[in-house]
Amino acid sequence: MQNIFSKRYDGVNLYLEFTVKTKLIGKLVLSLFILLCFIVIFYLTISSSKDENNNSEFITAAIIFTFVLIVFPVRYLIWNCYGKEFLIINDKSLSYYYSYKFLETNLKTKLINELSIAIEVVKEDENYKYGRLIFYNINEETKLNEFLFQTSVLLKYENLEIIRKEILDLFFDNYFKEINNKKLFSDIYLN
Q: Which residue spans traverse the membrane (predicted)?
């Protein structure tokens, strides 16, 4: 698994792009599974059309079967071939969307009061740990973590630490800018 990420900062927003890079063998196995499902559905449809009773129950079952066994794996195959996850983070909000090259999901934005970030290790091998970022908003009233978002693309733990540090730096920079722009003391005029 060699998923990659890129980042850029425009002074206000941190833009993160996570790209899925899967092995060719996985794509081939999934493609063969989808092809096999198509062949089975095609064969069953042809054989049922020769049925003298013209039973439509099979057609309904075939449509449901096709949807479950073909549509989801096709979506998964497209994700593994072209999938990208985009995050846009600033001190007020977290926005995200997914790209399947031919299709993009809608941009979703969640407001942030105070951001907390965790790294969840999902997979380990001899050399590396792989995981995802989990974002929480700290509730202003209760001071408890509220789940905001978790990334889908697994990255090496070292890369996740780099991203986490970049996000925290963004928040610290903006915090100090706010302090410098506010008057900490009021002016006192003496006669």
A: 24-46, 58-78
Enclosing domain of residue 156: 4-20+83-181
For 103-154, write each residue's pLDDT tens digit. Answer: 899 999 999 888 888 999 999 988 899 999 999 998 889 988 899 999 999 9
Cross-strand partners of 136: 116, 147
Structure tokens at 168: 């925290």
Give the C-alpha distances (Å, rounded to integers) separating 34 from 61, 66, 96.
18, 10, 29
Split into its structural domains, the chain has a count of 2
Bridge pairing between strands 84-89 and 155-156: unpaired
Give the three-state DSSP class for 102.
coil
- Terminal-to-terminal C-alpha distance of the chain: 73
* Domain co-membership, 11 together with 104: yes
Q: Which of 103, 183, 104 is nearest to 95 (CA)?
A: 104
